[in-house]
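Why Teichoic acid D-alanyltransferase? Reviewers of the renewal asked for a concrete example.
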Amino acid sequence: MISWLQSLPNWEPYGAPRYFFFLLTALVPVVVSLMLGRRLKIYETLVSLVFVLMMFGGQTWPQFFAFISYLIWQTIIVFSYQRYRKNANNKWFFYAAVLLAILPLIVVKLTPAVIGQNSLLGFLGISYLNFRTVAMIMEMRDGELHDVTFLHFFRFMIFLPTISSGPIDRYRRFDADDAQAPDRASYLDMVEKAVWYLMLGAFYKFIMAYIFGSLLLPQVKQMALHAGGLFNWWTIAVMYSYGFDLFFDFAGYSLFAVGISYLMGIKTPVNFDKPFIARDLKDFWNRWHMSLSFWFRDFVFMRLVYVFMKKKVFKNRNTTSSVAYLLNMTLMGFWHGVTWYYIAYGIFHGVGLIINDWWTRKKKTINKSRKKAGQAPLPDNRLIHAVSIFVTFNVVMFSFLLFSGFLDQLWFHPFVYHHGLPLRK
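Here is what the prediction returned.
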């Protein structure tokens, strides 16, 4: 078994033209069938299984066993809690189910920080699969999700287009699409959108991300490290190059995932909506990695606010929301990884959202006072909009510099470059 897995090719999802060639070829029967108003569920499942298997071929074969073990673990947790929830609703059983569901992810995230190497439980896509199961348990707790069958759960968990890096879908939304094929007119519209998403994704990932990530970023990093110090002008170039590379690479990947999903008759939610024209940080998180930010909003932030208000932890509603913002975004930072720069990134955005919320309330108070005094409200014109976008864009770009980990390298692991070769100081 191991030698067979080692002999398989290792195909990074959406990483090369040949991946698209084989995937689109495999999906031809799916497209034809959906055109005729039928869904080939068994064939779709087999295609997903084959391409998932290819994700873990070659040197990544241990991840295949980690993936299978993870699916078995999550199946036991989800269906055990579903069976329990039909007859009872004790909060401690709910907390235990959530903890057991995220336990593999906790181990995977903490292992590198503790022993300096990756966990054997880790595999490509574990974080995004974990969002699916935890959301299911929470919706079962809320009484919104009932009677999940194993086959439907299995199709949801191994759905190929989004398995490695999202977008993060919800079971009820996915299952509604998966239950039956769309009508011909709707599917033709989905195919048209799929072609556009795939073309735009290719432009983002293979052209723009290549320019910023492969051509510019290594050069400006070298210059910034050579300049040294706590901060320098070349670090600003790193900030923008990395920020654009992050967007085009991730948005391109997400467009591929959504496009392939549409070809399979599933309306996976889009992940990005022009994030760099956001007017404030709250608007930004309604546009950036939306499936992640909405997941944290629904399953972390809103629940924190509910618990704080129910327990009357804080007297002031604004304090409640501020603490929830900070905890929510800090947790998101930890989710990315247990390093100071990921955690700092989360705290930075948490504080930014608190400031944004404060200014929104302050502006309403000022405008109310100005109205009583017979004065016009604070200006809200195109110039103000442009300034807001400019400020938000640069605040976000600085947060991406934190996120990149480059400051960790610049401050704590500096290099001196001599004839293009990095030498540690």
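Residues 416-425 have pLDDT under 50 and may be disordered. This is the kind of structural detail the renewal will allow us to pursue systematically.
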